[in-house]
Inverse folding.
């Protein structure tokens, strides 16, 4: 059954918490059982801080060495090796894809991987864990000239390797899309794009079958730029993004055959997160809920945290 209630985190005003931000990395740390936030930006600054959410409170983490400030990076968790993996991103407010580096965090220390090779300079790309093959998969993004990529890569803990797209036609290059690995059906799910016709495209990729555009699925969220997309035990959850006119706050579930809008008819700030894009959304497998943090709308950053619970 899909989760059905958005619950905001409410705490004393003095309680520690990350500053409002967007385009940050956020990952569920399987071994430590916390949600980790890394970097991001606001109108004035690009961040290098790191925070952990345990379901009750925020805690700032201060490893002695950490990646340089960045936003729009790709991040994932290597469950086989117990490492958080971070790649690329923008280095400053005016630099959207100035990093090509790879870093790993073992829960205590960050280590750069200077001989990793791989995707090169890019931002607004995505990373997801493939549990069947025990590997991280990276897709797309934009380079410093704002050219969109469509390539696939995998990380083995030592180096990046390009993956073949497969026998079927691949989607055009894209960035600012939502992506997750649906373990129930063993496919990579991709939705939306930076602009144009790709904003309402829903694609799926399997290592043997290649790419499939899901034109067979009726309805769904429609056009979106940078929606939140995360796998959960019932399929895929979808939240918000920009629809060419405004930042949205709708929530959807996809079971492999149909999109279902959740919480339809619920209104009011007390029950739904405000509309946003550039947010971070992950599934907290320890507590069985989706965690939404940050993002922006109408030039204003969000610093709130919401959980989508059963």
């Amino acid at each position: 059954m899909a989760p059905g209630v958005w619950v905001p985190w409410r705490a004393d005003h003095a309680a520690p918490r990350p500053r409002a931000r967007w385009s940050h990395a956020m990952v569920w740390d399987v071994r430590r059982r916390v949600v980790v936030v890394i970097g991001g930006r606001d109108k004035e600054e690009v961040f290098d801080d790191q925070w952990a959410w345990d379901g009750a409170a925020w805690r700032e983490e201060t490893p002695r060495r950490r990646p340089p400030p960045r936003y729009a990076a790709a991040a994932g968790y290597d469950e086989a090796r117990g490492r958080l993996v971070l790649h690329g991103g923008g280095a400053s407010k005016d630099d959207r894809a100035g990093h090509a580096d790879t870093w790993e965090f073992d829960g205590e220390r960050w280590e750069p991987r200077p001989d990793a090779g791989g995707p090169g300079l890019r931002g607004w790309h995505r990373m997801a864990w493939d549990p069947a093959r025990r590997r991280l998969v990276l897709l797309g993004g934009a380079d410093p000239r704002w050219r969109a990529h469509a390539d696939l890569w995998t990380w083995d803990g030592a180096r990046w390797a390009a993956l073949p797209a497969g026998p079927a036609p691949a989607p055009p290059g894209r960035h600012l899309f939502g992506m997750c690995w649906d373990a129930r059906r063993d496919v990579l799910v991709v939705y939306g794009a930076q602009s144009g016709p790709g904003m309402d495209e829903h694609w799926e990729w399997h290592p043997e079958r290649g790419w499939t555009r899901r034109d067979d699925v009726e309805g769904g969220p429609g056009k979106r730029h940078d929606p939140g997309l995360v796998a959960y035990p019932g399929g895929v959850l979808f939240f918000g993004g920009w629809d060419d006119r405004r930042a949205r706050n709708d929530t959807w579930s996809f079971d492999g055959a149909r999109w279902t809008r959740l919480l339809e008819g619920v209104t009011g700030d007390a029950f739904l997160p405000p509309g946003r894009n550039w947010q971070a959304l992950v599934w907290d497998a320890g507590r069985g809920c989706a965690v939404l943090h940050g993002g922006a709308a109408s030039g204003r950053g969000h610093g709130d945290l919401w959980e989508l619970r059963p």
